[in-house]
Amino acid sequence: MNTMDYFSLKGKTAWVTGGAHGIGFAMAVGLAKAGATIVFNSRTQESVDKGLKSYEKEGVKAHGFVCDVTDEQAVQALVQEVQDTIGVIDILFNNAGIIKRIPMTQMSAEDFREVVDIDLTAAFLCAKAVLPGMIEKGGGKIVNICSMMSELGRETVSAYAAAKGGLKMLTKNIASEFADRNIQCNGIGPGYIATPQTAPLREKQADGSMHPFDSFLRARTPAGRWGETEDLVGPAVFLASRASDFVNGHILYVDGGILAYLGKTP
Ligand code: NAP
Ligand code: GCO
Question: What is the domain range of residue 36?
Answer without folding.
Answer: 10-191+235-256
